[in-house]
Amino acid sequence: MVCADLSRVEEIYAPASIYPAVQNLLLAAADLGYGSCLTTGLTTFGIDRVREQLALPNTMLPMAAVYLGRPAKKLSPPRRRPATSMTFRDRFGNPW
User: Fold this and answer.
1) Region (Disordered) spans which residues (predicted)?
2) Per-position DSSP letters for the chain, written without gaps between them
3) For residue 17, how many C-alpha atoms fall within 13 Å in the half-sphere facing its CB?
4) How far is CA 18 from CA 23, 40, 74, 78, 88, in A?
5) What is the model's pLDDT at position 44?
6) I need a surface site. Which of 15, 40, 59, 72 has the fewest CB within 10 A?
7) Got the DSSP string for 32-45?
8) pLDDT digit string, tens, across residues 81-92
9) What is the pLDDT of residue 41?
């Protein structure tokens, strides 16, 4: 569970620190051969239960759950659409 410490940062600013840190965690895990899954569903829809189960103080705000593990089989790299199919110049729909 990734939490923001609201005694150190205002809630509105927490995502700006938390999510880049989580991205770095996921990249490091992949480099070490771990598979990962990031979800914010638990923290969005079950925040009270998360706080209760983990005995979190009120100053700790759960923001994401990160699951890590060794893949049972080697996975192929994800397929990606070309960037040109998703990026536009000056306005939406204008190809780069």
Assistant:
1) 74-96
2) -EEEETTTS-GGGHHHHHHHHHHHHHHHHHHTT-EEEEE-HHHHH-HHHHHHHHT--TTEEEEEEEEEE--SSPPPPPP---GGGT-BSSSTT-B-
3) 12
4) 9, 12, 29, 24, 29
5) 74
6) 72
7) TT-EEEEE-HHHHH
8) 998 889 999 999
9) 84
